[in-house]
Amino acid sequence: EPEVTQTPSHQVTQMGQEVILRCVPISNHLYFYWYRQILGQKVEFLVSFYNNEISEKSEIFDDQFSVERPDGSNFTLKIRSTKLEDSAMYFCASRAKNIQYFGAGTRLSVL
Amino acid sequence: AQSVTQPDIHITVSEGASLELRCNYSYGATPYLFWYVQSPGQGLQLLLKYFSGDTLVQGIKGFEAEFKRSQSSFNLRKPSVHWSDAAEYFCAVALYGGATNKLIFGTGTLLAVQP
Fold it and tell me: Do the chains contact at B101 and A35, CB–CB below 8 Å?
């Protein structure tokens, strides 16, 4: 069964460093999303992406964040200068037929 | 604003017992409704969904959910819980019709199953 793949599973970084979280959505899907879950809190929407552009972003998704679909298969989330409060689990999802399918997530730890 | 409430943060049931996890939503119209499950170290797996039609929907792993418009609820049920059902369960809503269609999640219910 096709699935969404995220790498790495765990990323440790120093505050102020740039990180790129990678996702390979399901191949025939056209809508892509990033969500995050801070430990002990609910899963929150960050950004949606369609037709090579952002279709909606949340208040969390400030200028430090960016998304890109650099080729036909990858979908990346970049955090330019990480803060301690960016520590969270980040989930990628892709959508078809009104159903979002999630990857296993990347746990980002900012020290 | 749209919101989803899961009033039970943590539930413990005995193996073989029945289970009901509660979910209420606040929204101007009937959204699309979902239940996802997250096992340790795993992603969010879709259990079931409601878009329209029959208000009792069946999902994977023997789960079902009932949509009640009058109560703005979408409660998840299972008649007999297995130890492997121990996980965190998330209710989510979305209003589709555009290019966005983000999901709004509840805070989750952590299910423990005791022998």
Answer: no
Provide, as residue numbers in chain B, all residues whose Cβ is less than 8 Å from the Cβ of A105: 43
Q: Coil, helix or strand for A98? A: coil
- Give yes or no for a contact between B84 and B90, defined as CB atoms under 8 angstroms apart: no
Q: In DSSP terms, which residues pair with A5 in a beta bridge?
A: A24
B27 vs B37: which has the higher pLDDT: B37
Position of tokens 């952002």? Answer: A54
Does the distance separating the beta carbons of B43 and A102 come in below 8 Å?
yes
Per residue in A43-80, pLDDT tens? 999 999 998 999 999 999 999 999 999 887 899 999 99
Cα A101–A104–A106 angle (5° rounding)? 125
Can you tell me which residue has the tokens 């009901």? B20
DSSP A1-24: ----EEE-SEEEE-TT--EEEEEE
Residue for token digits 């990323």?
A: A11
Q: In this model, does residue A16 exceed pLDDT 80?
A: yes
> Which residue is closest to B49 within chain A, CA to CA?
A99
Give CA B78 to chain center in angstroms: 11
**For A103, nearest residue in chain B (alpha carbons):** B43
Show me where the domains of chain B are located.
Answer: 3-114
Residues sharing a CB contact under 8 Å with residue B73, sequence separation 6 or more, in sequence order: B22, B23, B24, B25, B66, B67
Structural class in CATH, domain B3-114: mainly beta
**Which domains are present in chain A?**
5-110 (2.60.40.10)
